[in-house]
Amino acid sequence: MQPALRLVRTGRDGNRPLLPGPAPRPAAVPAPGGSPHRDRAGRVLSVEGLSLAFGGTVAFAEIDLAVGAGEIHAVIGPNGAGKSSLINAITGLYAPQAGRVRIGAESFARVPAGRLAALGVARTFQNLALFTGLSVRDNVLAGLAAARRAGLGAQILGLPSARREARAHRDAAEAVIGRLGLGAVADRPAGSLPYGLQKRVELGRALVARPRLLLLDEPMAGMTATEKAEMTGFIRAARETSGAAIVLIEHDIGVVMRLSDRVTVLDHGRRIATGTPAEVQADPAVIAAYLGLADGDADGDAAADADTGAAAA
Ligand SMILES: Nc1ncnc2c1ncn2[C@@H]1O[C@H](COP(=O)(O)OP(=O)(O)OP(=O)(O)O)[C@@H](O)[C@H]1O
Ligand SMILES: [Mg+2]
Predict the structure, then answer these.
(1) Which of 65, 98, 220, 306 is the one with CA 20 to 30 A from 137?
(2) Given the CA of residue 81, which atom of ligand 1 is nearest to it?
(3) Side-by-side strand order, sheet with 98-103
(4) Same domain for 160 and 191
């Protein structure tokens, strides 16, 4: 019989449940091979043998990852496992020493960060990266800055093409603001909002350009259970409406179980498992990785964490 896995990991947003019992899966989970989400031709992101080290510190090594259109692929692992670095490499912020990143039909040794929007890639950051003094609306609009075609001259002169484009962008931003329930705060400075809403604004900025690849680095960190449930709904809706491939870094395993189609687990920069949430949950290497974390828990109180995890799960 499988032991009652009630451990939690401890991170910057406090205790979070690890490996809870099976959670209900959404009905829309695509069947392997039988859905356009998993169609090989529909693969949006392929990472092959990607490795990155900072001096003697290995951020990650020999990582393989494939994400299809419409798939929510979670990347999980203990603190320092290399999750954010992987996203930073996929988005060209970091230059990997080996391997390739394929986005759509194009393959790169280093993804050109300046072409992300053209490649249909958008992301959010683990630590909020909003223009705090700008309104929510302007922050969302900023997600379309790279999509602007009209030159500065056309904008200043108010040429019809520039006006049309500006109107289209405003409409797109309003639509996203509406979908994310941000209408009431659209004119407020983003920095004045509670943290959970700021995370939502950042999602809006990523969604407004209609990315085909969306990378979310801990979009629910520090959120209340209610905020997490709302954010889960927004991410699921984004997948349904856009068919984007979504890479989701998330520490709350309950959320991962409910939201993701597949999960890749990193530990000390290595990929130790990829599979469905149920598969990785039962994988001995994954359990060992987290048990190891619990043994060395910074709080030194794994038992108390386990109780919290049981309650939270
Ligand atoms: N810019 C950097 N310079 C030097 N080392 C870095 C840099 N970015 C990441 N690292 C190192 O790479 C390793 C992986 O870090 P990373 O931030 O990717 O982990 P993570 O899985 O996102 O962790 P967390 O769950 O805490 O966010 C760590 O050892 C980290 O210190
Ligand atoms: Mg991180």
Answers:
(1) 220
(2) 21
(3) 57-68, 43-54, 98-103, 106-108
(4) yes
Classify 193 as helix, strand or coil.
coil
The domain containing residue 291 runs over which residues?
Answer: 35-120+213-313
Give the Cα separation of 50 and 62 in Å (integer).
5
Contact 46, 233 (CB under 8 A): no
pTM of the prediction? 0.81
Position 259 in a domain: yes
Domain count, the chain: 2
Asked if 52 contacts 42 with a C-beta cutoff of 8 angstroms, the reply is no
Q: How far apart are CA 227 and CA 237, in angstroms?
A: 15
Task: Note whether 219 and 128 are within 8 A (CB).
Answer: no
Assess whether 163 and 203 both reside in one domain: yes
- CB-based pocket (< 6 A), ligand 1: 54, 57, 59, 77, 79-85, 126
Which phi-psi region, left, alpha or beta, contains residue 228 (left: φ > 0; alpha: ψ -120 to 50)? Answer: alpha
Residue of 57, 218, 250 to mutate, ligand 1, most atoms within 8 A of C-beta: 57
Atom 28 of ligand 1 has which residue's CA nearest to it? 80
Residue with CA at minimum distance from ligand 1 atom 13: 59
Report the alpha-carbon angle 98-103-107, nearest 5. Answer: 45
In this predicted model, what pLDDT tens digit does every residue of 31-72 receive, in sequence order? 333 333 333 556 899 999 999 999 999 999 999 999 999 999
Return the pLDDT at 6. Answer: 29
Answer yes or no: do 144 and 246 share one domain.
no
- CA dist 285 and 273 (Å) reads 7
Residues 107 and 221 in one domain: yes
Summarize pLDDT for 34-43 with one digit per residue, the tens: 333 333 556 8
Q: Both 109 and 69 in a single domain?
A: yes
